[in-house]
Amino acid sequence: xxxxxxxxxxxxxxxxxxxxxxxxxxxxxxxxxxxxxxxxxxxxxxxxxxxxxxxxxxxxxxxxxxxxxxxxxxxxxxxxxxxxxxxxxxxxxxxxxxxxxxxxxxxxxxxxxxxxxxxxxxxxxxxxxxxxxxxxxxxxxxxxxxxxxxxxxxxxxxxxxxxxxxxxxxxxxxxxxxxxxxxxxxxxxxxxxxxxxxxxxxxxxxxxxxxxxxxxxxxxxxxxxxxxxxxxxxxxxxxxxxxxxxxxxxxxxxxxxxxxxxxxxxxxxxxxxxxxxxxxxxxxxxxxxxxxxxxxxxxxxxxxxxxxxxxxxxxxxxxxxxxxxxxxxxxxxxxxxxxxxxxxxxxxxxxxxxxx
Length: 356
Known about the structure:
Elements: E1 3-8, H1 37-46, E2 58-62, H2 66-75, E3 82-86, H3 91-106, E4 111-116, E5 120-121, H4 124-138, E6 143-149, E7 159-167, E8 170-177, H5 182-191, E9 194-204, H6 205-215, H7 217-228, E10 231-233, E11 236-238, H8 241-244, H9 252-257, E12 263-269, E13 273-274, H10 279-285, E14 295-297, E15 303-306, E16 313-315, E17 320-325, E18 328-333, H11 340-349
Parallel strand pairs: 1-2, 1-4, 2-3, 3-11, 6-12, 14-16, 15-17
Antiparallel strand pairs: 4-9, 5-13, 6-9, 7-8, 7-9, 8-12, 10-11, 17-18
């Protein structure tokens, strides 16, 4: 058995503005440790010390980030199997199609593990063991996702409703649920058979190709053309822009998972997890909770993230998030950190792209 980690790192991370911007989005920042979250994701499989199971990573990202990717891989001494570079973002269904085509063509019978580059996982060994167990189900023709144990009535995540048992902690999927309101989230927590959707997928490449043919044949066809006409430079694969830009933009959840009869879920995954989608979430999981330059006087429960050379002083304030980066400063409360993305929307609406 060979599992090929396919790491998606093309996102923008607008809710972590101003540190996360179009030049260097959040996955390339050192937010939770002395490594960037992209590097942490890559190293998770190196730490597994199981090279006969986990192959060298396949990276899929925007072509604009190639220098960041190569620099950060070199810093941790990892060489990617391949780096597939998109001319623009087209969501996760296109990424999944590219991953399945690449693995099926290069590694017949191989499994793909499609996962984001910007998630925090607190107990990597628990996650790795879950992947090994879920691989048994994937080899039986299921597209297996991972559900995080629900610890609170969270309205910011999608949910997975488990169905019939398959293999130990792996079940069929009864339903995927959109981000709920507070009352619905509380009912999911009370029910006990719901988990948070981590957006991680394990599959045999051939299985996913079959499901793409059945449910999203247009994405399958155009992704194949973009890959076959791609420009190669070492392990870098620049997807053909003429074809790729015409791919329909949708998620793997909408295109495949909500339609297929092959959906399975490993749940609950009992480890600390966060999609670190807001500054408040970073404060919950980070070992770098405050910039060393921060000075606090009679203040508490604040998070400070300042670029090198910027000193931030807090006096008599509580529960604030302060982010200072270059010529941009963000001040918000932890409760409103979900709304930071609206600042980015407003900057675009005003034509202030220089601050993005």
